[in-house]
Write a structure and sequence with these properties.
The chain is an alpha+beta fold and 193 residues long. It is built from 5 helices and 10 strands, in the order H-E-H-E-E-E-E-E-E-H-H-E-E-E-H. A hairpin with a 2-residue loop joins strand 9 and strand 10. The longest helix is centred in the last third of the chain and has 9 residues. The N and C termini lie far apart (42 Å).
């Protein structure tokens, strides 16, 4: 403690400043996302359950750390929030069988799928309306699959302290293992980085 205090002149020995946390994966190669994958969310939209996953991409450039500010551009008039579980792939694979899919998962973390609903509804483009800079906060921690039951992770989104979303991954239409297997079918050759 004496050595740490010496490095920080004026610091109190009983208070340890924390650095700003970055996203657990600050520069992902790809951010795949799945739309309408929670039974309760599909019910609130009045739609029917999808027969196949609704896949879209969020720009990796939208990723920020958990404590960074989301910057809503002035042309966005209907920003929206969606708390999500982000799955981080730790081992490449192609045509991964569902029963082996979780072997490819390094961990899970919190994600905030920020959207510009006004842009989405006018253009029908999910990827564009969800990929503005800062529209994908991740973190703060990465939890390994042996630490959590990925099939029953609780999700809670709060806005100004008020709970605005609450669900569990057990409510997913397509569970995480099935999604990893599904997305592995479209994976480019191993030469891609």
């Amino acid at each position: 403690m004496a050595a740490a205090t010496a490095l920080l002149p004026g610091a109190r020995p009983d208070v340890v400043p924390l650095p700003r946390l970055d996203a657990p994966v600050p520069r992902p190669r790809m951010v795949w996302a799945i739309g309408l994958n929670y039974r309760d969310h599909v019910a609130e939209t009045g739609g029917s359950l999808p027969e196949v996953p609704t896949v879209f991409v969020k720009s990796p450039g939208a990723v920020i750390g958990p404590d960074e500010a989301i910057v809503v551009p002035p042309h966005v008039t209907q920003p929206d929030y969606e708390g999500e579980v982000a799955v981080v792939i730790g081992r490449r694979g192609r045509d991964v069988p569902e029963d082996e899919a979780l072997d490819h998962v390094a961990g899970v973390t919190c994600a905030h799928d920020v959207s510009s609903r006004d842009h989405q509804f006018v253009t029908g483009q999910w990827s564009w309306s969800k990929s503005f800079d800062t529209f994908c906060p991740l973190g703060p921690v990465l939890v390994t699959p042996d630490e959590v039951d990925v099939d029953d992770v609780p999700l809670e989104t709060r806005l100004n302290g008020e709970v605005v979303q609450a669900s569990r991954t057990s409510q997913m239409v397509f569970p995480i293992a099935r999604l990893v297997a599904h997305l592995s079918r479209g994976r480019p050759s191993s030469r891609a980085t």
